[in-house]
Design a protein that fits this description.
Number of strands: 8
Order of helices and strands: EEEHEHEHEHHHEHEHH
Radius of gyration: 17 Å
Protein name: Alpha/beta fold hydrolase
Shape: globular
Structural class: alpha/beta
Keywords: Hydrolase
GO molecular function, one term: hydrolase activity
Strand order of the largest sheet: 1-2-4-3-5-6-7-8
Number of helices: 9
Helix content: 25-40%
Domain Thioesterase TesA-like: 22-243
InterPro entries: AB_hydrolase_fold (IPR029058), TEII (IPR012223), TesA-like (IPR020802), Thioesterase (IPR001031)
Strand content: 15-25%
Amino acid sequence: MTATDPWIRRFFPNPDAPVHLVCLPHAGGSASFFRPVAQALTPEVEVLAVQYPGRQDRHQEPMIDTIGALADHVSRAVTRAVDRPFALFGHSMGATLAFEVAVRLEQAGRFAERLFVSGRRAPSCRRDERVHQRDDAGIIAELRGLSGTDQRVFGDDDLMRMVLPAVRNDYRAAETYVCATDHRLSSPVTALTGDGDPKASHDEVRAWRAHTTGDFEMVTYPGGHFFLVDHAPDVIRVIDERLTRPARAPR
């Protein structure tokens, strides 16, 4: 793994890969979540996984609790790191963040080959969610319900004390987010969703269609919010097919 930029992790550096895939984690997540994706896509695609401050090797840095501020930082990091065609992939909160990063990059004249949004409703679909205002037990109950956290973590009090501040911070960012732009992306959008995801109904996922002038597709899998873990080979195949035989985004 290399980390020449605090925001970017390259688990399998490959300067000869024709395309970059910038991956943005879910609330409470870290860049290492995408290590298996990076391994599976090498050598055709080089994965750049975003590391948010306040976790893992950046645990001593102040966290950022708004999507807008995160998007500002990440878009600058992507501009520094990406020197070839690129796509963006975000899961849950990371999908909303990927959209905002794509908006900023398009406004600067850089267009993603494709935006992959996973496990997240469209930016225009708001819910009144306040998980970040719960006590620790309430947040833990939320995490258990989504089945995306290794059950062994819940039995380790020290680890939970380390993880919960980042989770609360990221939920605050996701739950207070308001889509403040009417910008429609030029990049095509692939929306991935689980048919039993309590965080994103089918109608809310289809609403991503309104956020691009490019092609749109919705791919549904059995499962809940972390369907992509259970269906990792299929999700990786979709990414690989769209990036190795892409429909180029209009310029």
